Each structure stands twice: as structure tokens, then as C-alpha cells.
Amino acid sequence: MQESAQILLKSISLFFLVWAAIRLMGKRNMSQMTPFNFVSYIVIGIVTSLISLNLINLIYGFIALLVWVAFSIALDYLSIKSKVMHELINGKEAVLIKHGKIMEENLMSVRMTGEDLLAQLRSKNAFNMADVEFAVMETNGTINPYLKSDKKPITPHDLGIKVAPQAEPQTVVLDGNMLEEPLASLGLNPQWLSTEFDKMGVSLENVFLGQVDSSGDLYVDLFDDGVELPQPKVKEMLYATLEKSQADLATFALQTEDTNAKAMYSKNSQRLEDLLNKLRPYLLH
Does residue 134 lie within any of the structural domains? Predict the structure, then answer.
């Protein structure tokens, strides 16, 4: 019984100790971890388990943990400060495709087969080898392809279209609960949200997820997937109203015989047209 209690207390202490050590070593995504970092975490986990189960001496175990944690932090610091140390510790990137040609020697040096390369390219939506201009393997093993210029997706910039800047959407309802802090960050309040729900004919309790984007549009997902909700069209309706007003003013200018009225209608029609050109990226794209 005493041994069980000792193992329990030691495991709890080691849990918080390792948690603090991992935080000191930095936040890393598993897919972005270098081989050295991966080995470091594995060794720390193994040593911690051995200490918890009294399979190694406590002092020796803590020395081993201290060495692995301290050296990992020190090497990360050196790799940040020096490019030479970074390449020495983490290795260098390997160019696998250049000018549309597979670099077989580099492929062999990273121990990859042609099928491995194709599988990695497919994971990045590059299914056709003929579409790839350049591909590099990063030090963490990730392969990043660069498509040929005529195969890249078309962007609004390519078409010369101006689009409004987009900010991160805020989740204002989650699992039927209103989140007031994100609402306040958008300059909105619970009354606004209740009004929007009334327009849709839904109640807060039936909403699984609610998000507001940077334009103020509210997206709602209900618990009942069988219910179809109308998509927000506030911006489109506003643009259509302004466009109709501009067209009406242009029509009035053509129909009237009064010179002053014609000039007034033409002037205001042009002003509305200029306003529509400025608002188009924000209301339609």
C-alpha cells in the first residue's frame, strides 16, 4: 500500500514537472516536429515512466530528464540564433522537384521512393505531376509543392478584382449558449442577436453554432439538421437597392425635359454610380 501511494504521488509530481518542461521547450504541432524534437519527447516520456514505476534511481532519472530538457532548449536557442547551427541540428531543406523535373539524387538522399513523393504531392492537392514546377522537403519532413503558373488557382488579384479585407469570424453561440465576449468584440449585443434569431424564426436553445463574420453576416447551424435556414443576403439586397436607385435616376434624367432637373438627376446618378464602384468589393465579393 505504501509503495502504491509513493508511485501515485511521484507520478502526480512528475506529471506537472514534465508539463512545465514541455511548455519550456515550446509549442509544436506533431506534423511540424523535427526528428530530433520527436526523439527528445519520446526519451523524456520513457524516463518519466521509469521514474514513476521506481524502475530507475530517482536521482539518476532526474539527471537524465534535466539533461534532455536543458539540451533541447539550448539547441533550439542556438538554432534560432545561428543558421549554421539550425542546419546542423535540424538539417537542410531538400529540393525534390526543380523546373518540373524530379531530382532523383535528392530523392534518394531523403530515403523516399517515387510512390512516396506522389503520395505526399496528392496530400497537397497536386495530383498531376506535370502541374508541379517546384517541390521542397522541409526539415520536418513536410513536402511543399509549387504549381506551374498556368496551373495555379485564379485569385481576385489575377482578375483585377478588389475584395474587402476579411477578419476572423467570431463564434457568438456554441452548443445553445450565447458567448457575450465575442459579441462585444464585434460591437454587438445580445439584443441584436435575439433580433436576428427572431428574423430567422429560431430560438437560442435550438442553435448549435452561430458565427458572425467581419461583414456582420450571421451564420447559424441548428441541432436539427433537417431545418433549412435562409442564407443572409443583407449586403446583396443593399447593393441591389442602391443599383436600382442609380438606374431610376438615370432614367429620370433621360425622360425629363427640364434642364435643371436633368442636370440634377444626372449628377446624383453619377454620384451613386461612383459609390457603387467603391462598395462593390465590400457588398458583392
Answer: yes
Distance between CA atoms of 42 and 48, rounded to whole angstroms?
10
**Would you tell me the crossing angle of helices 259-284 and 234-255 to the nearest 10 degrees?**
160
How much is the pTM? 0.54
Buried b (16+ CB within 10 A) or exposed e, 67-98: ebbeebeebbeebeeeeeebeebbbeebebbe
**Residue 196's CB: how many other CB atoms inside 10 A?**
19
Domain count, the chain: 4
Query: Is residue 159 assigned to a domain?
Result: no
Contact 91, 134 (CB under 8 A): no
Please work out, in degrees rounded to the nearest 5, the angle formed at the alpha carbon of residue 183 by the alpha carbons of 180 and 189.
85
- Its domain, for residue 276, covers 235-284
Per residue in 71-111, pLDDT (tens digit) is 888 888 888 888 888 778 777 889 999 998 999 999 998 88
